[in-house]
What we know:
- The protein is of the alpha+beta class.
- Helix content is 27%, strand content 27%.
- Strand 8 (138-142), helix 5 (163-175) and strand 9 form a beta-alpha-beta unit.
- The longest helix has 14 residues, at 53-66.
- The protein starts with 6 loop residues before the first strand and ends in a 5-residue tail after the last strand.
Amino acid sequence: MANAEQQIWFNGEMVPESQACVSVFTHALHYGSSVFEGIRSYDTPKGPAIFRLKEHVQRLFDSAKIYGWTIPYSNQQIEQACKNAVLANGLTDAYLRPLAYIGNVGLGLTPKSTVCEALVAAMHWGAYLGDESLEQGVDVCVTSWNRLAPNTIPTGAKAGGNYLSSQLISTEAKRHGYAEGIALDVNGTISEGAGENLFFVKNGVIHTPPTTACILPGLTRNTLITLARDFGYEVREEAIAREAMYLADEMFMCGTAAEVVPVRSVDRIDIGTGKRGPITEQLQTAYFALIKGQSEDKWGWLDYVNEPS
């Protein structure tokens, strides 16, 4: 289907991308009133499988609930829409983007209707920070932009408007020659990357900022915590000072788009030996074996596209 027009699940129907149109008065365009997910499908020995589909779709609904919006479809309908989008576009490895948004309900901050429109797109998208980043690692920096403060915009919701903050963080980092930027929270402790959660290894113990550090509680983050504890590692979710990054033995970033990426330096200071560490490599290997169906899926996280939801 290389030359075929991309198919989009759009408000309950599969349509060509050119027909998936919105009004210029769409509320989300003017006020950022949208929630979304990033999900990946992987080619496995049993066919394409979507990783942690149910949890991603539930978070989409949870994000809408925080804002008081209604998605007029069931979880199961959105899950099946994700599968249908993979199939309709002839994909195996795919990045999926479910999006729920307030449409053309008139201008004004408070929408006159809180019932969302919805779509699901599926596309090819390689490693977010580059394929070479998965082994070689990346150089990152702490930017001047803090993450959102508590009781301003809820970071537990994966909402479109939140990512203006991410754009500032990532753009500043890239302007200074780094692959990605890191933000501190309002207390000056480590929060997260522009689009990734963070982990640090010190003396065999794995550390990660807590949800109270204004992070998005990532599903890849949860996956890696689960895998690490299954290997017998201690994982601590606690406030982490900026200088602790510089003294870490290993550091890595994670997210659905980024997957699992070693960090070799922060602010031009080498992390450990300045290359991927052994615990990072162990978790990275286990993660890719799991998502590609090469190891036992004992948590039931793979949802096969050819099976009904």
